Amino acid sequence: METLMAYVVGLLFACAIYMMLRRSIVKLVIGLMLLSNSANLLIFVVAGMTRGAPPLIPEGAMAPAGAVADPLPQALILTAIVIAFGVLAFSVVLIRRAYEIVQTDDLDQMKDTDT
Asked: Which pTM was predicted?
């Protein structure tokens, strides 16, 4: 399963880089979102995808009993999702404003900003 997930992460990174190298600014943002999702998946895969109970320690014990889930990757992913949503919202507003001014989404045509 982890080998398959490694291939999926690699494929997502490759698709993200391909999309980011396109000339359209919309495709650039789609590639940016793919990149953030692939990084999130990479953190999950590296942390180990094991099912377990919540990491709660019973009263009077020094360590949790049995297999527990690691909360650190989950916290990192949750924070990354919130940040990625903020970046996406900013990018959509930026794209809309740039399209209103330049009347194109082609990055090569946006080089001349004297409009």
From this structure: 0.78
